[in-house]
Amino acid sequence: MTTVSARIQVPATARRGEIIEINTLVRHPMETGFRRTQLGERIPRNIITRFICTYNGVEILSADYHPATAANPLLTFSTVATESGTLEFRWTGDNGFSFTETAKIVVA
Amino acid sequence: MKLRRRTFLAAAGCLAGGIGLSTMAGRAHATPAELSVALKKVTGGATLRPGRVTLEIPPLVENGNSVPLSVVVESPMTTVNHVRAIHVFAEKNPLPNVISIYLGPRSGRARIATRVRLADTQKVLAVAEMSDGSFWSDSRDVTVTLAACTEAVI
Lengths: 108, 154
Fold this sequence. Notes:
The structure holds two protein chains of two kinds. By secondary structure, chain A is mainly beta. Chain A has one domain (6-107): Immunoglobulin-like. Chain A has strands spanning 6-9, 13-14, 19-26, 48-55, 58-65, 74-80, 85-93, 97-107. Chain A has a five-stranded mixed sheet, with no helix packed on it. Chain A has a three-stranded antiparallel sheet with strand order 1-3-6, with no helix packed on it. In chain A, a hairpin with a 2-residue loop joins strand 4 and strand 5. Chain B is α+β, with helices and mostly antiparallel strands. Chain B has a single domain (29-146), classed as Immunoglobulin-like (Sandwich). In chain B, 21% of the residues lie in helices and 39% in strands. Chain B contains two helices and nine strands. Chain B has helices at residues 5-25, 32-43, and strands spanning 48-50, 53-56, 60-63, 67-73, 83-90, 97-102, 110-116, 122-130, 135-146. In chain B, the strands form two sheets. In chain B, strands 1, 3, 5, 6, 8 and 9 form a six-stranded mixed sheet that branches. The interface between A and B is large, with 33 and 38 residues.
């Protein structure tokens, strides 16, 4: 199995009240469960099903992923920079998949 | 990229196999009924109104395995008036649900971007659920030349 990694883009600093854009990308095959091997056996589904983003512990966005999400799920969204602190990104899915990444932001 | 014979055959088999195996699999495509069931689960039977939502997706897609799309919803995103969720559906994928994103006033603006799989040339539908309980939608026709291989022979 490939190592799990994620790429997060969050501005390091922002003005209070500014709307900032966040880019998230996590490495995952997102195997749909609809494909078959040469022998006709179905390849079991292995996808990320849920994504949650929290800002200093408060949930600001979440998402449900389905097999129709492309491999290495990418999600771009925005949030209001309210205070300095930590943004946490958590992906969970099939076969007990769970991965967490954090990013710091300084709000002036 | 060097196109080897094996690679080419695998890709060809992927297309041909999709046709052959679809009957075996029994569910190559979601049916319109499945789409309406999935929609009803989201809307609870409320009517979808056109407008306020803009779905951006290329009209012609070469590779259905990774199709960039973005959804923008007109909303002030305040505590009393915001977008609660954005849902994307594809009528001819094996499953109609593509992605659901739950946002709120802390999002600042209602715009999301992601990448999806499309199994066939089809209509893609974006639905926005507002804090007042109304539902708005936009749809786009997308032509896919190489479908996302849902029944691949690898």
